[in-house]
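Students often ask why inverse folding is considered easier than folding. One informal answer: many sequences map to the same fold, so there is more than one right answer. In these notes we will look at a single instance of the problem. The structure comes first.
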């Protein structure tokens, strides 16, 4: 019996990683992007529909903080018409700006109160002086900031008047706060203080005397005022006058000051005395 052996050639291996045509890849990517876009669009549409529900329409604004010069009803009436939106879409920046545009309001802090209210906390200006020339309706607050308001609403109309460049209102207030105690100790309260165009300080006392303080910062000016406070009472006493008799004083001299007293010629007072 004859046995045949057949030689079997090995079959070639088929590569499992068949290259996908570029146009097919692009079609798959486009389809995926369209699906993602539809999902995102559906989610956005759902969220938008949700936030537009009547439940979230603004029902009111709670006003807290300083309302000495503005009552809550007036504030809402003046402000509500200046912004739109509901609990989610209201622009808090615009709401804050609307409240801060109201006279006397310095700062406003705005928060959302779920589900349909806003809460606003106000800080009003605290006036400490008039600002500008006589007759101007502007004021300076405790931060040295210039603001406009109805001066008829003031509780204290006996405030001093300060003036100078608006950009230097803080420096003017700082100088006044330094000068006032020194002159008040001499029974000569400061009624007004001006920073002139030439950068020099000029004070007017309550009884009308004008004091030329010269240039410089608080330390420089107060050093000159110290000369006056140490000698003024003695000088006026020698002249047989009270300190309230002075009509003017010029502190711009290096070694002393010039003094004009009612009924007496100008006196030069040396700091060496």
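Output (designed amino acids):
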């Amino acid at each position: 019996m004859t046995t045949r052996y057949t030689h079997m050639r090995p079959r070639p291996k088929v590569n499992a990683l068949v290259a996908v045509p570029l146009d097919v890849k692009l079609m798959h990517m486009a389809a995926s992007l369209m699906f993602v876009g539809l999902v995102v669009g559906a989610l956005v549409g759902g969220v938008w529909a949700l936030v537009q529900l009547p439940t979230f329409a603004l029902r009111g604004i709670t006003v807290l903080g300083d309302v000495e010069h503005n009552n809550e009803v007036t504030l809402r009436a003046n402000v509500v018409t200046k912004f739109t939106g509901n609990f989610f879409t209201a622009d808090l920046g615009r709401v804050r700006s609307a409240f801060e545009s109201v006279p006397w309001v310095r700062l406003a802090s705005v928060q959302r109160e779920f589900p349909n209210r806003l809460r606003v906390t106000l800080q009003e200006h605290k006036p400490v002086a008039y600002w500008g020339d006589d007759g101007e309706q502007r004021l300076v607050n405790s931060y040295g900031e210039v603001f406009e308001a109805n001066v008829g609403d003031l509780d204290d109309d006996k405030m001093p008047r300060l003036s100078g460049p608006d950009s230097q209102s803080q420096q003017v207030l700082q100088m006044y706060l330094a000068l006032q105690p020194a002159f008040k100790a001499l029974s000569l309260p400061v009624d007004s203080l001006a920073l002139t165009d030439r950068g020099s300080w000029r004070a007017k006392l309550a009884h009308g005397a004008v004091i030329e303080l010269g240039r410089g910062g608080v330390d420089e000016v107060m050093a000159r005022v110290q000369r006056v406070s140490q000698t003024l009472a003695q000088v006026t006493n020698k002249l047989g006058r009270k300190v309230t008799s002075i009509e003017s004083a010029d502190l711009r001299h290096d070694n002393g000051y010039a003094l004009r007293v009612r009924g007496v010629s100008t006196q030069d007072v040396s700091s060496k005395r």
